[in-house]
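1st attempt posting a full record on here, be nice pls
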Amino acid sequence: MKTFFIILHVAVGFLALAVGLVPMFSKKGSSLHNTTGLVYYWSMVIVAASAVALVVVSPVTDGRLFLTGIAVFSFYLCFTGRRSLKQRGSEPVRWFDWSVSGAMALAAVAMVVYGFYHLSALWTKGQFESIGILFVVFGFFSGSNARYDFQKYLYPEKSKYGNREWFFMHIVRMGGSYIATFTAFALVNIRYIFPDASVAVNIATWIMPGVIGGLLIGRAVRFYLAKFKMSVQ
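the predicted structure (as tokens):
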């Protein structure tokens, strides 16, 4: 069973990484954009589900827990990014919107708590591992996204991008989902590509996808803000 989930997770993860590039660079709203975007979405559903399944059937380690957290966060971003398209008209906020954002908020709290616990347990022994900090930072970051959702659900009139909130949230969330997925892929495979990699290389693996991807997303947001002659509220 474990082997099945590993093969499924890796194979569909590769598919998501390959297909996910197409909607980014294809014409927005085109048949190609919509079709490949849908394939990417359902691939992320399988990636997240298989990641959780692997935690259940495998020995629990800090590394596996953290990578599972990234997979779940990637799906959360993908889900909310796709839902934003549905909410551009009269589609109301549904119970499952609250549920998914609420689950992400709870997971974020759990990650922060576990991260601080991990750091304090090692601190008493005079030891240190970066994984504790990663849990804390990632927990705060994912929690801030869930908090933004709650504010948007409760006070839609205060949305950051006004009546085009759905458009910009689709870009930001789907792009963020791809960045998180690529980061997880890089973290798993860096040890095989560079078995003797220095600490600096490992740190760069954590940071660079987010930095580069964040800059590209920011550029896309600024482009469309200028195109629509908008300013952020």
